[in-house]
Amino acid sequence: MKRRHILGALFGSVFSLTMFTKSAHAVEPWLDRPLTLPSLHASADVGLGFGQHVDIAESAAARETKHSWGSGASMEAAVGVPILGEVGVRTALRFGDGGKSEPAADRFGRLFDKQTFNGRATGHDTFANPEIFLRGTLVDVNIVAVGLETRFSLPAADDTKFGWAPGIPVRVRIPNLARLDTGIYVPFVFDDKTIYSFDIPAHLWFQSDQLFFGPLVGFRFNHFPVGNDQSENEGTLRIGGGVGYTVLSFIDLKAQAYFDRVNKIPEGSNLGNMLGFGLGAGINVP
């Protein structure tokens, strides 16, 4: 089946199911939404990402670094479950060799969610390794919400490893004005030697009627073992922006653009090579 038929069937199926099951109540505005889905509520998100990668074959032939664009789609569905909280699954579809290259382009299709694993856990096949997540709320008051989260990346693709990412999501609200999504996430990839990271996002959202927008910032510290009890450590900063619009009170149309990193740019690349884009839609069933 052609790729466009796969995506068309996915969009059509999710939209039809949602239209059939949608209740008369509207989803809360973006700024007021809870940290986790309420019990028996559901959501589905599809995002298309565009990013650059190094074309190794052309680089070797030309003796210089060549960058090419790739694309991929991120797909996620979640449901609120009594006692457990929110349970969901995510995967990705990469288009052609460009979409599967390292780093895979579907990372830009993860709209407003950058806390992911590296390629050793997600793989470079046409379909990314499935990622399962569980998220619960510990505290939720008017000003702040704090939760617990855990994610698992299952090594279905060849030459990939199991990934586990515990996290503490935090949402700070300034009533009727803004919302800050932050927290700390610690992805582990259990290779021959464990790779781990510390990821701290800071997404500040504002809202005007059904339009929401704001800057996307994040800091990530990576620890890579390189053998002989040696390791390479680096801290990277990403910066960008996101915007969305809620349609029919339950569909969020979303877009983002951000630099994967603005410091410690690899040799042969420049800041422009770190830029990527994403757009997509999220459907909520209240």
From TrEMBL:
Superkingdom of the organism of origin: Bacteria
Q: Which organism is it from?
A: Pendulispora brunnea
The UniProt keyword set, sorted, is: Signal
Protein name (record)? Outer membrane protein beta-barrel domain-containing protein
* Keyword presence, Signal: yes
Residues making up the signal peptide according to the UniProt record: 1-26
